[in-house]
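Aim 2 progress update. The chain analyzed this quarter is reproduced below.
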Amino acid sequence: MTPETHTAFKGLYAAALKPDVLDLKTKELIALACGISRLCEGCITHHTKAAKKAGATIEEVKSMVDVCVLMGGGPASVYGHKAVELFNAA
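Predicted structure tokens:
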């Protein structure tokens, strides 16, 4: 990735996660759900830690994972379980 692309992505990241009508915790839970749905281990690792830092509870993460499993089936259950493990380890 070029420095220009990296800088642009960081700007997009900051803009998308800036609290507005949704707070940071909610946005991080959404980002984590997207990471699970896209089967992206790096995204899951990052957004699990970020969601916890933003105040998410393990119960909220598990509830969000349930919705991911509903929409994504077996693969989402595997990656959702990984998110729960990472949350507990963080």
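The chain has one domain: 25-89. The chain has four helices and no strands. These observations will guide the mutagenesis experiments scheduled for the next reporting period.
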